[in-house]
Amino acid sequence: MSRKRQRRTYAEPPLNTSLVRVAKKVGIDQSAIENDVEYILYCFISRPNQSFNDFDDLWNKLHFHFVHFACVKREFRATFMDAFFASFLDHFSSPLTSIKCGVLFSIYFLYITQPNIWGKNRIRVTKDLFSQLFDFYVESIRSESNIEAALIFDKLRNMEAFLFVAEQEQDPFKVQERIEFDKVIGVDKKLRELKRKKIDNDPLKLCSESDLEEFSNLAKTYQVAKRETYHTPQATLATQRMLKETLNVKETRIRLLQNVLLANSFTKDETDTMKRILNLGQQMLNSKRRKLEGKQ
Q: What integer pLDDT is reported at residue 115 of this predicted model?
């Protein structure tokens, strides 16, 4: 008696709210995509010039265009590309201008490097998000800063790369799944909101040159004002009086009195504080980049 051949079946994977499907039975964790996105952005802002050429060099050095081949099934390409575009655009709310520029460079390269065989998936943007992008473009042109990033945005517009939608991300869940796993989906949503708040309140902003510009200018002005007082008659008399009261030394030679003043802590460079803050920011950036490298 011959045995009846049984058809082999595979169980559906458990619901994973952070899973990006790249095939019927295969998915990539959303956190892996977010790590890749963060890595290239923070590598970019580590560059000294943070120009378009810097990003072009970085993109090719990291072979970032290879991410397209993580999803080779046409029916899953839209969801896969949406996840990458959305992850990059999440960082546009960063207070760091260099990150905003990096986001625009990233979505441009990600868009144009899509293999022709699968067609081009457009970049989903809501009305509010596009307004933020456009405001950045207008302000950059007006202030003649971040011109390269502004031109890249304009190029994306002319290429009709943006797809206007009511919601930034498509709902990947069926009605029954959303009812059954409501708590799990809710927790994942809260975690994503926390990640966005982390982006919005990047501590590197406090250590950036643009944010410290006002304080740096004030420190430089104060430093110049102090130098101008070193050689005034009032400064010489004050030093002479200080020596008399503290050391009971009576000195009248102007040259020596000026040397005593210049050796005082009062003459320390006021811009040193700004330099220490900038160095601290660089250390934080290097630490974050090394941490992301460990996840690659």
A: 93
